[in-house]
TrEMBL record:
<keyword id="KW-0472">Membrane</keyword>
<dbReference type="GO" id="GO:0016491">
    <property type="term" value="F:oxidoreductase activity"/>
</dbReference>
<dbReference type="InterPro" id="IPR026021">
    <property type="entry name" value="YdjA-like"/>
</dbReference>
<feature type="domain" description="Nitroreductase">
    <location>
        <begin position="71"/>
        <end position="234"/>
    </location>
</feature>
<dbReference type="InterPro" id="IPR029479">
    <property type="entry name" value="Nitroreductase"/>
</dbReference>
<protein>
    <recommendedName>
        <fullName>Nitroreductase domain-containing protein</fullName>
    </recommendedName>
</protein>
<keyword id="KW-0521">NADP</keyword>
<keyword id="KW-0812">Transmembrane</keyword>
<keyword id="KW-1133">Transmembrane helix</keyword>
<dbReference type="InterPro" id="IPR000415">
    <property type="entry name" value="Nitroreductase-like"/>
</dbReference>
<keyword id="KW-0288">FMN</keyword>
<keyword id="KW-0520">NAD</keyword>
<dbReference type="InterPro" id="IPR052530">
    <property type="entry name" value="NAD(P)H_nitroreductase"/>
</dbReference>
<keyword id="KW-0560">Oxidoreductase</keyword>
<keyword id="KW-0285">Flavoprotein</keyword>
<comment type="similarity">
    <text>Belongs to the nitroreductase family.</text>
</comment>
<dbReference type="Pfam" id="PF00881">
    <property type="entry name" value="Nitroreductase"/>
</dbReference>
Amino acid sequence: FFFFTCCLSLVEFNRGGTKVYGQNMNNKINGSSIAALSVLMCMGSISAYIIYSLVNEKKREKNESNILELIQRRRSVFPKQYTSEPVSQAIIDAMLEGARWAPTHHLQEPWYFVVFSSAKSRKELGEFLANDYKNTSTKLGKFSQKKFDKKLKNAEAASHIIAICVHRTDGSKCPEVEDICAVSMAVQNMKLIATEHGVGSYWSSASVHENKKDRAVKNPISLKKFLDLPFHSICIGWLFVGNCDAKCFKKSQRKNISDKVSFR
Ligand SMILES: Cc1cc2nc3c(=O)[nH]c(=O)nc-3n(C[C@H](O)[C@H](O)[C@H](O)COP(=O)(O)O)c2cc1C
């Protein structure tokens, strides 16, 4: 449209703007008025374009500040803070869709999630986590009945529990740590989408490590069996999800970033 009006204006000015148009029609239009109209339309297009760009720029700035605000609002919200109202399937689907778009080296998309949504499956998971805790803590002489009961209660209180897994094969193209990073970014996406919907979540690493002092992730065999994970895949945690009061997203603290950055 902009190009067209420019051309029309130029043509009209070149013609001197004196020719009379539409001689065979009822309405006779003077060439110079068409030229003037074209210039006006041209200026209108330019102004519209400038206004559109300014509005878009403002929108982009607003989006940027919204994203930072969302990142800062995200909190770990624990099962005792969840309400009994289940999280809708639409929100769980949105979280999983967010996970799908995490960065991933070689497009390996190494995430794999097992969603415990039914009361029965969460009870089974709660029993697995509680019994695993019992076995390991008893060996260390540190068993606490209170902690055991809490594991059962937490699984019951959550609306959904998502096993966070890293799918790997013999032929995986990336070092394990890169796949773990990609899955962690997917989890952050899920947590941000949950936060945006006012849904609480927290990452638990209970029963994930055979030995907490290991440098690499090595799942206990019982966990791999429970989740039916292939040999090379690993579980790196559990995302507990539940509806909660808006007050659960309370302000937190972080150290100043300047202590953690050096510019060169
Ligand atoms: C990889 C990972 C594992 C975590 N494991 C646990 C856990 O086992 N138990 C727990 O209470 N919180 C766990 N958290 C949550 C942290 O405790 C929480 O993020 C931290 O206290 C900061 O609070 P915020 O998330 O509200 O900002 C884990 C977080 C990450 C990233």
